[in-house]
Every structure is written in C-alpha cells, then in structure tokens.
Amino acid sequence: MNNSVTNTARLLGAGLRALLVLTLVTGVIYPLVVTGIAQGLFPSTANGSQITADGKVVGSSLIGQAYDLPLKKGQGTPEPDLKWFQGRPANGLGRNSVNTRYKLLLSGATNLSADNKDLIKQVEEAKAAVVKENSVRGYTVEPSQVPADAVTSSGSGLDPDISPQYAELQVHRVAERNGLPVAKVQRLVDEHIEGRTLGFIGEPRVNVLELNITLRDLVAKS
C-alpha cells in the first residue's frame, strides 16, 4: 500500500515538473526567442507589414482597403471614389452579416460555384461597371480588356494587390480625375509592379495602397 502511494506521488511529482519545464520552455522561452529573432531580422513583417504616410500608419501591405465616397443619406452601398485606383471586389465580405466590408471580424470568399447565377450576375455587373467607369474621353475600355481580378474577389476578400493589367486599365480614368498627364500616372503603375516572389511564385502584382499613396503625393506636387 505504501509503495503504491509512494509511486503515485513520485509519478505525480515527475508529471508536475515536466509540466512546469515544458510550460517554461514552450510558453515563455521559445516565444521570446522567436519574437526576438523576428524583431531583429524582420521587424516590418513581424509588426504587420505596416505602411506609413506623413508619419502615420495608414494600413498594411497585406490587407486591401476600400476607396469609396462617403455614404449619402439613405444610401446602403458606397460608390467608389474614382480619383483613386480601385482594388478587387470584396463580395465575400459584403455577404457576411458580421462584417461591413473592410471593417472586419471575419474574412472569406463568396463560396459560390462558378456556374452559380448570383455569381455570374455579380461578375457581369462588375464588368459593366469597370468598362463604364474607366472609359473616358479618348480612351474606351472594351469588355475583353477587363481582367479576372477586376470582377472577382479573392479567397479571403482581403487581397491588397491587383494585376498590372487592371492597374493599367485604370490609368486614363485616374489621370483625368486628378488632372494629371496619362504618362505620369502610367509611370507610377510601372514603378509599382512587383515581380513573382523568388522569381517563380505567384504572378506580377501592384499593391493598391502603396500606389495610391504615391498618387496622392504626385497630385499634391501638381
């Protein structure tokens, strides 16, 4: 009987010591070491890839933003502010009752199949809007020019990037709305095209927030 109690006490003691050691190692030491390495070698990434402008954090390079006009009285959906480059649609976010587009608790896609009538209607309406909004004097957008990322949301609904094709399609409209030469706005886009990660992962892309910050600076100088 005494041996049984002694063995049980010994096992409990060993288990408790193991719990304390593992808690210290995996719950304190390891997180501190990883955090220290991340802050030392990759401070920007470790802190959320924040983008600053005029000394203030204006967003993250990893999360897309909306560039809309203020809501008018009785208006349910804001209209895009067409003086800015626009990002991808966020239909998945709009369908989630917990979210108000980019003011988020959750992220996600529409989860609609490719042949879903609602999705097809959304894409058709989005394409018509892109054609209409970006057709300006001396420049007409054809439906065949509209890339897929201009009319579909990403899997998360938070994609911060657009394709170079979609950015270039918006150049004439942005130039006209801001009173800028087309060549200058096109140069901005060219300067913000990022290549494939490590040369082979993903596709070339343009970060919309970074592009719009540079556009704002250009407008201010003009």
Report on this structure:
Strand 1 (50-53) and strand 2 (56-60) form a beta hairpin. The protein has two domains: 2-43; 51-221, no CATH class. 47% of the residues lie in helices and 7% in strands. It is built from eight helices and five strands; from the N terminus they run H-H-E-E-H-H-E-H-H-H-E-E-H. The model has no long low-confidence stretch (mean pLDDT 88). With 222 residues, it is mainly α.
Mean pLDDT: 88
- Kindly provide the radius of gyration, computed on alpha-carbon positions and rounded to a whole number of angstroms: 25 Å
Elements, N to C (H/E) = HHEEHHEHHHEEH
Ends distance? 91 Å
- Flag low-confidence runs: none
Strand coverage percent: 5-15%
Structural class: mainly alpha
Number of DSSP strand runs: 5
Q: Could you give the topology of this structure?
A:
Layout: H1 2-41, H2 43-46, E1 50-53, E2 56-60, H3 91-94, H4 117-134, E3 161-162, H5 164-169, H6 171-178, H7 182-191, E4 193-194, E5 205-207, H8 208-221
Antiparallel strand pairs: 1-2, 3-5, 4-5
Helix pairs in contact: 6-7
Key traits:
222 residues, 2 domains, mainly alpha, three-stranded antiparallel beta sheet
